[in-house]
Write a structure and sequence with these properties.
By secondary structure, this protein is an alpha/beta fold. It contains 37 helices and 26 strands. It is globular. This is 3'-5' exonuclease DinG.
């Protein structure tokens, strides 16, 4: 690599402080600095500084710096001249430079010195852009991922050194980028933090002069550099395409690849016999963790795919999809020598639309900072990706407005400059050629008639215990009147009231002003009609079968359809008028937009932004029109009683804050249609039965008429060696205040010897309370504490848990069963309470009311079997494979005091040890030591 920055000295600085707000008597307690010359660390500095105040407990926990460490140190006035001298004529670098530099300057000015005016660079933004697919840009996570060694994270000297190596790695990475990518990055970078853009412009200018040719692995389309999309060379089969009937033959094939396990081979043989039997349509398989269920069903179906039929595998999560495609299928091909091809199938919106992305770069004015950084990340990512699947970016949310412009709409893109390299169309082509297609439950439910599945395809529904609920979720929708009201208000502002509104720019255009006046009247009529619909819905509030006031002040009211939409009621007629008005507003706005495009040359310089925003509001009006048609179809339909409705009132006293949601309560017809499309369907899960009985699963999956065959697999390892289950018998009642105190005491006192702890709860409000109680406890200072609803999305929490050396998750809902921790594993799972669903949840109450109306026991037919399956899944978070060991602790005394407790005990795969609160800590502390002795 060239030494582009040979003339520059970088001073990479990290400060530890008593707090983040410098004006509130917070001061520096450690100054760390690493000097970089010629892309090497040549010197480091570390000063402990007396802040003349106590160091807060949270800071001590984070940094490991205590009051006694600084009480005899010199104060800042002593070090200020040294720091100024160190930083003289250097480029100031920090990981979040807008904290370190202002804080340091504040201290300097307070002590009578001039503020530093050095060029300043931020390594957070640099790392995000240079390494766009990393899951986290916290310094400790970056240094782990990039294998940067520094001994004491959160100490200023160690963090400064780590940041210095990060700076060097980042610059080296940017230097490898193609020239056109560097040029675009340089042109976009002017709005980055402080002088961070200087890095990009310096590298781009240097290589522009050397005129580097484009490397062979790249291609350029317009200003965008992409990886070449070459078809993979044909792989010819090394093995027989005939299923190995003899177990001895299977054993030979497995040798050197995976352990031969009789339980797994038994499962393979049962599946194979099912697939070959023309009289069978469906099979239910319970395959405990450790059975190797994924490899088993892939192996069983693989040999039937040479007749041109495809295997479709549907999973609930992207994580499981990635695991199947990245690990299980490659292992299958290695073992069998078959030349099958596999592809993921997901919505087009996961793929980048290159036309939309280029338009966002050159036609959108100056974007906000998050959008700018995201655009620069994507530019770099495009030089790396072969799929264009934006999930590779590992973002924890996709809410940035940019994604509405760059997500692929799913059309053929014929005639586009990027049509030959369009990622979505290339993905469809690969899917058509594939033998195995891996998708998710929701996508399958909404696209089961897609031609991509081929003729008479096989289907495996993995984690099948969740399939019905996922189909239901995919059918749920809403008409959010308040949001539509907001769209209309924003549209009026763009057309009439902002300084550069259409009306203000064309005061003399008679035709346009006539159109604007006409549209304004209709928008006001539409808003009035929205209010009428809201009042009509709100007037039924006393007929709700359930009401639930949320912590954010929203009121949820649950309704059966007949209570909200009585026969011959006025709502449907008013909804029809609403639809007509909405369509008129949409058409009239389109007409005005067309007129403005014709007059574009006479508009202000910001006209592109205004026209783009008006077009965006039209798209949103289309969206609300579609939802209103869906609602009208539901109310007019014969299956209205299969729907449940929820009013979400954001201000319980105001009818005009009413919004409508609907949920499908009975998806039996939808399930039947899905099953009709596929052949030899295998439903597989680790938890398909309730006490070895498939009746609940057969009923829930609507399989009675298919007369499915059933099979319960055996685990391939000894659970007694891998799992210990402890149930505390003397816990207070789960609903008491005393329980909460004991529960919190257990967390801060009894679990400290563990590394990765999952605490499963049943109530999000209680999670907030527990998090607040434990987050700053010094005993837990080594743990990253993550809480559902407080620490970002569930996906982000799972990623943080996997990255951290020691972590605690407080989770409910999907953390019982929907999230895997393959990379980090879990040492300890604590079930705070037995996982009965709260009847306050609208969807739960509506579902249970439907069961009541059928004169069935809600507890026996819904609450208990659901809780037992979720409970078994909770245990399954702990032991995922033959190398996992751990403890499962139950803190709900109802296990022993209620009749249904024995049903949960029966569901536990090992003997449950009944202990007291006092015994718990010793059992947890000694487990790993005892296990280590047992295994050796």
């Amino acid at each position: 690599m060239s030494d582009i920055f040979a003339k520059n000295t970088f001073a990479v600085v990290d400060l530890e402080t008593t707090g983040t707000q410098k004006e509130r008597d917070n001061h520096i307690i450690q100054f760390g600095c690493a000097i970089v010359k010629h892309m090497k660390v040549v010197k480091t500095y570390s000063f402990m500084i007396n802040p003349h105040r106590e160091i807060p407990l949270s800071v001590q926990n984070l940094t490991g710096i205590h009051d006694e460490d600084v009480k005899n140190a010199k104060d800042f006035s002593y070090y200020a001249p040294k720091i100024i001298d160190i930083l003289k004529d250097t480029v100031f670098v920090a990981h979040n430079v807008n904290f370190d530099l202002p804080f340091l300057n504040y201290e300097l000015v307070q002590h009578g010195y001039e503020a530093l005016t050095n060029r300043a660079i931020d390594t957070v933004e640099l790392a995000k852009i240079a390494f766009p697919t990393l899951p986290s840009y916290k310094l400790s996570d970056l240094t782990d991922r990039l294998d940067i060694k520094h001994l004491n994270p959160h100490k200023a000297d160690s963090d400064a050194y780590g940041t210095a190596i990060l700076l060097i790695d980042t610059i080296r990475q940017l230097e490898t980028l193609p020239q056109a990518t560097l040029n675009t990055l340089s042109s976009l970078s002017s709005s980055l933090v402080r002088d961070t853009s200087w890095i990009f412009s310096t590298i781009a200018d240097y290589y522009r002069q050397s005129k580097r040719p484009l490397s062979k692995e790249f291609m350029q389309v317009r200003n965008i550099i992409l990886q070449k999309q070459e078809d993979e060379s044909e792989v010819f089969s090394k093995g027989s395409s005939h299923f190995p009937q003899e177990n001895k033959k299977k054993k030979e094939m497995f040798k050197g690849h995976l352990h031969y396990r009789k339980a797994q081979v038994d499962l393979i043989n049962h599946l194979h016999n099912f697939i070959l039997d023309p009289n069978e349509k469906a099979m239910l398989v319970e395959a405990p963790n450790g059975t190797g269920k994924t490899f088993s069903y892939l192996f069983s179906y693989a040999y039937q795919l040479y007749s041109g039929r495809k295997l479709v595998v549907a999973t609930p999560t992207n994580v499981l999809q990635d695991q199947i495609l990245g690990h299980e299928i490659p292992q299958l091909l290695e073992v069998t020598g078959l030349d099958l091809k596999a592809e993921v199938v997901k919505s087009s919106s996961h793929y980048i639309d290159l036309d939309g992305f280029v338009q966002s770069l050159f036609n959108n004015g100056t974007p906000n900072k998050p959008t700018l950084v995201l655009q620069m990340q994507i530019l770099v990512w495009l030089t790396q990706t072969k799929t264009g699947d934006m999930d590779e970016l590992q973002l924890t949310n996709y809410n940035n407005q940019l994604f509405t412009q760059i997500s692929h709409p799913g059309d053929a893109r014929v005639g586009s400059r990027f049509s030959s390299v369009d990622f979505w169309n290339l993905a469809r082509k690969r899917q058509e050629e594939a033998d195995i297609l891996v998708t998710n439950h929701a996508y399958l439910a909404n696209h089961y008639m897609d031609t991509i599945w081929g003729q008479n395809p096989y289907l495996v529904i993995d984690e099948a215990h969740r399939f019905t609920d996922n189909v239901i979720s995919s059918r749920n929708d809403a008409l959010r009147f308040e949001s539509l009201w907001g769209v209309l208000s924003h549209l009026r502002n763009l057309l009439y009231y902002s300084n550069d509104s259409a009306q203000n720019q064309f005061t003399d255009d008679v035709e346009l002003n006539f159109l604007l006046k006409k549209l304004n009247t209709k928008i006001l009529e539409l808003i009035y009609k929205i209010n009428e619909l809201q009042k009509l819905l709100y007037s039924h509030k006393d007929n709700a079968i359930n009401d639930n006031l949320l912590p954010n002040g929203n009121l949820q009211l649950s309704f059966q359809s007949k209570e909200l939409f009585p026969k011959n009621g006025p709502f449907l007629a008013e909804l029809t008028k609403f639809e007509q008005l909405l369509e008129e507003v949409r058409q009239d706005t389109n007409q005005i937009l067309f007129k403005l495009y014709q007059e574009q040359d006479n508009l202000f310089s910001s006209s592109d932004d205004i026209l783009s925003e008006i077009a965006e509001q039209i798209d949103r009006l289309d969206y609300y029109a579609e939802k209103s048609y869906q609602l009208a179809d539901l109310i007019n339909g014969k299956e209205l009683e299969q729907e449940g409705f929820i009013l979400v009132v954001t201000n319980p006293e105001d009818p005009l804050s009413t919004n409508l949601h609907w949920i499908m309560l009975d998806v039996n017809d939808e399930l039947k249609q899905i099953y009709d499309r596929f052949d030899h369907i295998c439903f597989v899960s680790a938890t398909m039965t309730v006490n070895d009985n498939f009746e609940y699963a057969i009923n829930k999956l609507n399989l009675e008429k298919l007369h499915p065959i059933t099979y319960i697999g055996k685990s391939t390892f000894d659970f007694k060696r891998h799992l210990q289950v402890l149930a505390v018998k003397d816990m207070p009642s789960p609903d008491s205040d005393e329980y909460e105190k004991v529960f919190e005491k257990i967390i801060v006192s009894d679990i400290l010897t563990k590394d990765h702890i999952l605490i499963l709860m049943t109530n999000l409000d209680k999670i907030r309370d527990v998090f607040s109680a434990i987050v700053n406890d010094p005993k837990l200072k080594d743990f990253e504490i993550l809480a559902q609803g407080l620490s970002g999305s569930n996906q982000r929490i799972a990623k943080r848990f996997g990255i951290a050396k020691k972590a605690i998750i407080l989770g409910a809902d999907s953390f019982w069963e929907g999230i895997d921790f393959h990379k980090s594993g879990v040492d300890l799972v604590i079930a705070a309470k037995l996982p009965f669903e709260s009847p306050d949840q609208p969807e739960v109450r509506l579902r249970q009311k439907r069961i009541e109306d059928l004169n069935l026991s809600v507890f026996q037919n819904d609450s208990l079997p659901r809780a037992i399956i979720r409970f078994r899944q909770g245990i399954g978070r702990l032991i995922r494979g033959e190398h996992d060991y751990g403890q499962f602790v139950i803190l709900d005394s109802r296990l022993w005091s209620k009749n249904y407790g024995k049903d949960f005990i029966t569901a536990i795969p090992v003997k449950t040890e009944k202990i007291t609160i006092k015994e718990l800590k010793g059992k947890l502390d000694n487990y790993d030591q005892r296990r280590h002795k047992t295994n050796h």
